[in-house]
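Trying the structure run again after the queue cleared.
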Amino acid sequence: MHSDSDDYFSGDDDDFDRQQEIARSAFADMCHDWERNQKYDRALQLTIERLHCEGKEAHVLDIGTGSGLLSMMAVRAGADSVTACEAFRPMADCAERVIASNGMGHRIRLVKKKSTELEVGAGKDMERKANVLVTELFDTELIGEGAIATYRHALQFLLEEGCRVIPDKATVYAQVVECPLAMSWQTPKLLCSSDGDVLLRVPEEMVNCRGSSAVFDVQLSQLPLESFNALSEPIPVFEFDWSSREALKFKRHSRNLLKVQSSGIPQAVFMWWDLKMDLEGTVLLSCAPFWAHPDFEELKTQKQNDSIPEPNLIPWRDHWMQAIYFLPHSKTPLAKGEEIALDAFHDEFSWWFGLNDLSLDPGHCSCGMHIAYSRSRIGQLNDGPRNKRMLNYLEEVLDKNSVVLVLGDGSLLGLSIRAMGAKKVILVETNQTSRHCMERLVEHNGLENVEILSCLDDLTPDATADMTHIFGEPFFTSAILPWENAIQFIWELNRVKALLNHEVSVIPHSFSIYGVAVEFLDLQKISAPLGTCEGFDLSLMDRMIEAVRRESPRNRQFFYSRVVLSLECMEKARSRAFIF
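Done. Tokens:
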């Protein structure tokens, strides 16, 4: 039976990866970004109009055309010629159909290659060098998708001297903050009993670790203002001139002197960027959170719907967010009025920040904790109310004769059971890195009678003879969605029960899955169809994306935990309960 996806995929093994990429991508999300679309459109209009006023033709190159939207905008703006390139073959095939369906197939030359593979000359990919480049190569870190190298190559081989580039420039901003909430996603904390006794201490190498080098992209506008203390004003730390190859360096450092505006411990840097879309800088696109957004005050005066929270007044987008970068660990507070130097660094793809440190390296996880566990998992480990409720219950049901099997990865609660006085704890740690972290915690806390197994197959009937309890949070590093942890726990629990010849207590006793009906302000745009976008019909791209998601239902889960939003529940209903 023929499906829409058959038009873009041949069915070989590589197509599975391509389908995953489309289903989990933000292609449609970018096109839902009306501000991005309109400001690219306006910049194209201004640029092409100015070239024509100077008596010049406008020959446009669109790198990474995606849906073909920017190329079609260039044609509408009066470009004399347009060449578009797209290396991702299913998307290139889709763009070809979209462009044709909008009646522009004869106006746009679509080349299904990387821009670095394009050839210029008579009868080649480009008949001549372009004098206008329009492209959207950016991510939350601005440079994380290789923008620097792509621009440098285009300026050297594909563009005329003195060409116009859209966008023309980018400015990166940084703000030093004290933010315990962000730190809860970075640094594991000690565990204490209900009496305040320390059950589990965290080794210094885990506390001081620089953490994961992967970008920590968040919707800063959704952080409660009371959750952080801004130690500085936002300041520009770098500018990128996309029209100058000489100015686009792969590695740079800037030292930025600033005055502390509020006393506190410097823990992190909030980062975002903006784009000056045209040469004259008349069109500005900002990715700032609402409290620093240049249009926020104007948008407040234009607010017509009182039900929209202030953080949601600024244009919403999920493909470009803001980022948090953790500073090297410090317990020394800064005083209001103190002058400090914020050192900002970037390489070809990423950023890092420090205070008064000219030689700071990019940093990476050296303790294993940030490799084994995601930031959301570390946040869960640091969830005080959750830990307190579980520990209180464990204190009630366990005693000095308890022998407890812990199922799951990286359970600090499970490890703390031994510190609470249980006779023995057996941990099943299938993840090697997680297992090494738990071994280090056992060593650091001097815990005895703790056995760590690498898999359930190592659990023998003799080892289970004295077992009294089975505990799980549950959490498994292999799980993607929350309920997969519970399902994995059930599966492993049944395997253990097959080895037992006596009853044991299982903690937790049961779990329930809840369904919540909600109305989103913006989040639905991640997977909502486009239809018409800025006057162009993109329904063919809708059909391709929907076909891929329909054939791979798991891909519909791709947006889970992308952002944290405050939602009002319209209806809550227990859908199913499981008893262990």
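Residues 138 and 145 are 6 Å apart (CA to CA). Worth checking whether this holds up in the mutant runs.
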